[in-house]
């Protein structure tokens, strides 16, 4: 067996390693409450968080500003670090969705340079509701529910939904395992507990970050769509029948929890 690939060099930035204990990254799956979490973190005077700097449209704009058509001249890690220039506070960083870590950066190089940083892992157990929530938001071009009575419904191809769920599951599992293997300062939060036990969640988060929980300000944004999937999917029965062969997902259709 040829193990030469294990010796491939990884670009290390000494200046980043020196200060990465002040970095904070939120790794999340889509529709897991990450926007609410970023807003809450930003409400603390000692924390400054950027949103998704790895969005393709943001990357392309940044590349063009630096006379590059497809990649930042200094590499992926330098691209990320340059966004933090001028940020103050005890902790600062950004949000990265799991698929973005796999598609848009050298994830291993990132982990080697930021291994001493602080990481919040945010997940959502009911991936069916999370995925459908995202597809509804995209279809209606409204990412945040403002009216509790605002019911939005769509029709989905169940095969398409299954492929989306598989990609969501794989990207989440891979990223979490990599983070756990290479980083030590981690805390994991889950959507349902985060909003059901908000006070305890904020306290745990403050303890992890070594900041005062009293200085966080939480928003009143509506996070949970109050409707059962039966009311959000016009072809609910068709989807349930299709997912009979995938019990790990089928039971999520009946789960009243978010």
Explain what the structure shows.
By secondary structure, the protein is an alpha/beta fold. The chain has one domain: P-loop containing nucleotide triphosphate hydrolases (Rossmann fold). The protein has 13 helices and five strands. Strands 2-3-1-4-5 form a five-stranded parallel β-sheet, sandwiched between helices. Helix 7 packs across helix 8. The radius of gyration is 20 Å and the shape is globular. The termini are far apart. The N terminus is likely disordered.
Short description:
With 258 residues, this protein is α/β, with parallel strands linked by helices. It is 47% helix and 11% strand.
Helix-strand blueprint:
Elements: H1 14-19, E1 23-28, H2 34-42, E2 47-50, H3 56-65, H4 76-82, E3 91-97, H5 98-103, H6 107-113, E4 118-123, H7 127-140, H8 158-182, E5 185-190, H9 191-196, H10 198-209, H11 229-232, H12 236-242, H13 247-254
Parallel strand pairs: 1-3, 1-4, 2-3, 4-5
Throw out a few tags for this protein.
globular; 13 helices; Rossmann fold; 5 strands; single chain; 258 residues; alpha/beta
The run of helices and strands is HEHEHHEHHEHHEHHHHH
Number of self-contained structural domains: 1
What amount of the residues lies in strands?
Answer: 5-15%
The level-1 CATH class: Alpha Beta
């Amino acid at each position: 067996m040829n193990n030469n690939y294990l010796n491939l060099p990884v670009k290390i930035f000494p200046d980043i390693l020196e200060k990465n204990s002040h970095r904070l990254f939120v790794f999340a799956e889509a529709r897991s409450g990450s926007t609410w979490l970023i807003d809450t973190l930003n409400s603390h005077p000692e924390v400054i968080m950027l949103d998704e700097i790895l969005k393709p449209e943001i990357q392309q704009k940044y590349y063009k500003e630096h006379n590059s058509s497809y990649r930042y001249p200094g590499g992926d890690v330098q691209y990320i670090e340059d966004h933090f220039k001028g940020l103050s506070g005890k902790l600062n960083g950004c949000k990265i969705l799991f698929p973005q870590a796999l598609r848009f950066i050298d994830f291993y190089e990132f982990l080697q340079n930021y291994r001493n940083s602080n990481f919040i892992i945010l997940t959502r157990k009911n991936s069916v509701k999370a995925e459908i929530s995202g597809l509804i938001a995209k279809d209606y071009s409204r990412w945040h529910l403002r009216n509790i009575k605002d019911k939005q419904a769509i029709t989905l191809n169940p095969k398409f939904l299954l492929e989306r769920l598989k990609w969501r599951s794989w990207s989440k599992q891979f990223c979490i395992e990599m983070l756990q293997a290479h980083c030590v300062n981690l805390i994991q939060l889950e959507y349902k507990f985060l909003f059901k036990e908000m006070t305890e969640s904020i306290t745990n988060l403050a303890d992890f970050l070594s900041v005062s929980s009293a200085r966080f300000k939480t928003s009143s944004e509506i996070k949970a769509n109050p409707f059962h999937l039966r009311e959000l999917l016009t072809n609910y029965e068709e989807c349930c029948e299709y997912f009979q062969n995938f019990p790990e997902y089928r039971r999520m259709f009946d789960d009243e929890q978010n």
